[in-house]
Each structure stands twice: as C-alpha cells, then as structure tokens.
Here is the input.
Amino acid sequence: MSLLYADTSALVRAYLADEPDHPTLRRSLLEGDQPVVTSELARVELASAVRTAARSGRLRPWRELLAIFDAHCAEGRPVALLALRPAVVLPRARELVVAHALRTLDAIHLAVALEECPPLAGEEQVVLVTRDRAQARAARALGLSVR
Here is the structure.
C-alpha cells in the first residue's frame, strides 16, 4: 500500500464533478483504501477554486462542498491535513522553484510531500497525485512516484 499525497490540482478534480478525471480521482482519493494526505494549504486553494467555480456558474451550492471537504479532513476520514511547517518546507520549496521552475504553491506542495511524507509512510511508497505536468516531472526527477 502507498501513501498518497494529493496536490490541490487533484483534489479539485476529485470534488468538482465537471472536472476532467473526476470519477477516477474521487474513487482513488475519497473512496479508496490507501491513506491520503495533503497540506493544510490545500484548504485555502480548494476554497479559492470552489469560489471561482461558483462565480462562473459551474457550482451551486458552494458552501456545502467546502463543508464536505472539511468533514473529509476530520480525524479518521479520507483526507488527512498536514500542518505546514514553514521552517522545514519553505527552504525546500525555494530549492524546487530554482531547480525545476515550479510555481510557488506547486513547489510548496511538492516540498511537503518530500519532507513530511516519508516518515509517515514508513516502509511504504509516497505517491504524488497531481494534474500539474511540471510538478509531476519534478517529483519524478526527485524519485517520487506520480499518479
């Protein structure tokens, strides 16, 4: 079994039914048997994506979807939120931006996956679940599996 680190790009597609890959990501991230973690940063990013979808008329009622996500992040539920530890994560994120030309938030998520997940995974593999090509490419270059 693997530990899945879900980037916001994958979480948005798991929660918004009109997004590409929605059924697949919903099954693997919210209904699967593998543990799923993400950074608390994803709460902010997902809220932004949900509000954007609501403003464009793609999503109603949006508050319910945010409540569902928050419920899914409660202890023992499908998604575990990892506290953002800036002293650990931000220096690594900066290295990732410089080395791989990643966008800021993509670099932060990848840094969390690289720094925080291996101790949680123990002997298991850490898998980054993302729909961002540059982030996926950087993760593979650094030895992570990507879905």
In short: Residues 3-146 form a domain with the Rossmann fold fold (CATH 3.40.50.1010).
